[in-house]
Amino acid sequence: xxxxxxxxxxxxxxxxxxxxxxxxxxxxxxxxxxxxxxxxxxxxxxxxxxxxxxxxxxxxxxxxxxxxxxxxxxxxxxxxxxxxxxxxxxxxxxxxxxxxxxxxxxxxxxxxxxxxxxxxxxxxxxxxxxxxxxxxxxxxxxxxxxxxxxxxxxxxxxxxxx
Length: 162
Prior knowledge:
cellulose degradation, monooxygenase, metal-binding, polysaccharide degradation, globular, 6-stranded mixed sheet
């Protein structure tokens, strides 16, 4: 069974001001809700500070569906949604995602008059992706991303790794 740093309801960030100690989680911590500005920087892989791993992995069966649950998403930040995976070639808890070789699981843009981010909002801020059925055993990292297109000529990238 593949081990994937993912589980249902993973993108909500917990803050130490509200829970002590902060519970361990499978999502890599994101320090703010702002976009990644430099697409050539390592931050584009898993967001600012996302190169640091997490101490947990979650078991996910190949061929199963994974749900990414966002805490919120602004309705005016319309754009595509994509999900990727990479093998960690061993232990994902300390894997540096800036050197990952990602493969795409899904991507939706604009279809039937609606951006994928609007679909995510309508689905209670959640997104479902299917893990490949033929995925080899091992540890994998998932990258989920929304690209906001509300600033003409200046897309905003919001990646998160789990």
